[in-house]
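Batch 3, record 17
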Amino acid sequence: GNSVTQMEGPVTLSEEAFLTINCTYTATGYPSLFWYVQYPGEGLQLLLKATKADDKGSNKGFEATYRKETTSFHLEKGSVQVSDSAVYFCALRKDQLTFGKGTKLSVIP
Amino acid sequence: DSGVTQTPKHLITATGQRVTLRCSPRSGDLSVYWYQQSLDQGLQFLIQYYNGEERAKGNILERFSAQQFPDLHSELNLSSLELGDSALYFCASSSGLAGGENEQFFGPGTRLTVL
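Prediction for the assembled complex:
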């Protein structure tokens, strides 16, 4: 079946540090890939997406590239801010969304 | 604000009881999805309705059921509750079917605690 594996958290970074959250997937065919963000007390919000191999999704300084050869979709940001503190979920969609376990990011001033 | 509303925000009940969670999708959205988020299982898809009809089932227990009404709001019914049913239940909506390029918009969730 389909599955998503993302790096375990929590991740704690200082403001302006570089962020990478690893995500790999298992699926038949070519799913669409997503990163969702969940701020405390809120529902999930779509952060970025990519629908085919080599596509790069980007939003709010975050980027992720759909790598078919490594079945990966790693999330990166060059300089994190305190306001980026949240839980980040990698997901794939083949008909339905399948989520990773989530990675909690805390950014300290 | 995603435009998806869920009530109640919090629910505390006892084992063996039955509860109903309610979701109102964004205006114009025909699809409603239910998800369960728990510490051990993570975020799991439960069930999808499209324009009043069940479209897809995920890891939904037989004790759980859902429906979508003519006004497109949806209810998730959980019965014979167990301690392990304690979780955050999310509703999401989209304009079309899951296989298309339709973004799902998530509500703020209902936190269920079973004592």
